[in-house]
Design a protein that fits this description.
By secondary structure, the chain is mostly helical. Helix content is 58%, strand content 0%. The radius of gyration is 27 Å and the shape is elongated.
């Protein structure tokens, strides 16, 4: 058991392909947060792309950080900061529609709002007997239009609404493609630089392999300087619980 390596998992998001990053972010988002928050995140990305500048970028990070919350914020922010410029918003909306779940509080608020009559409802909803219908999150939770109407005002919302109104659906290729179809040149350059500078972490070594490497002569081509064997012996004795005795230095 002492000879087995201890594996510490460190996710370097820059070393992953874009497709894996997009799907990891969408999966983590719908797993950690309710569907209404996921729609707000997708809407925030779409609004940011309508007004691309430094101030909008800072506002988007601040708003999404508040939406993610303190519990799952670090995990989501690490993925979000890597893929906010490349992920497809229709893909994120459709992923939320397929796997997301609205919270009970949000559904209750929508139902309560629909049960409060307003002036001229008898004219506006004459086909329904003058009664406002149930909200789409309750009556049509499978429809993409239900999630589109929850978005903030932006160019993408108008485009999706127009396609749903004219054709009744969004092309399947547009929903399954996780990468945005139109990426600026600076985004592609930044992605290549990030992938080129990503960490390349070697696999863990067993204690025998480590001792064998320590016995070999050190060369100037090695990336790290070896610790003295006496220091390794002291640390091993202290962490094992038996303690270090000065007389043990003779056997090192």
């Amino acid at each position: 058991a002492d000879d087995q390596p201890i594996r510490v998992r460190i996710l370097d998001v820059d070393a992953l392909p874009l497709e894996d990053i997009h799907r990891a972010f969408a999966y983590t988002l719908v797993r950690r947060l309710p569907a209404e928050i996921c729609v707000k995140v997708a809407s925030r990305i779409a609004v940011f792309r309508d007004n691309f500048n430094q101030q909008s970028y800072e506002n988007m990070l601040r708003d999404c950080g508040d939406l993610f919350g303190p519990t799952h914020g670090p995990e989501l922010v690490a993925l979000f900061s890597r893929c906010h410029a490349t992920i497809s918003v229709p893909f994120l909306l459709d992923y939320t529609r397929r796997f997301g779940t609205f919270s009970r509080k949000f559904i209750a608020a929508q139902v309560e709002k629909s049960l409060q009559p307003q002036f001229f409802d008898f004219v506006r909803y004459q086909k329904n007997g003058g009664v406002r219908p149930l909200p789409p999150v309750v009556s049509r939770p499978w429809a993409l239009s239900t999630y589109t109407r929850l978005m903030a005002k932006c160019h993408l919302k108008s485009k999706l609404y127009e396609q749903l109104k004219l054709h009744g659906h969004i092309p399947e290729s547009q929903l399954q493609d996780d990468t945005a179809d139109s990426l600026p040149a600076e985004t592609r350059v930044a992605e290549r630089l990030s992938a080129a500078g990503a960490l390349r972490v070697p696999g863990p070594a067993t204690s025998r392999e480590f001792q064998r490497r320590q016995q070999q002569k050190w060369t100037s081509q090695e990336a790290e300087v070896r610790r003295p064997a006496l220091l390794d012996a002291v640390m091993e004795a202290e962490y094992s619980g038996r303690g270090w005795r000065p007389g043990d230095a003779e056997s090192v």
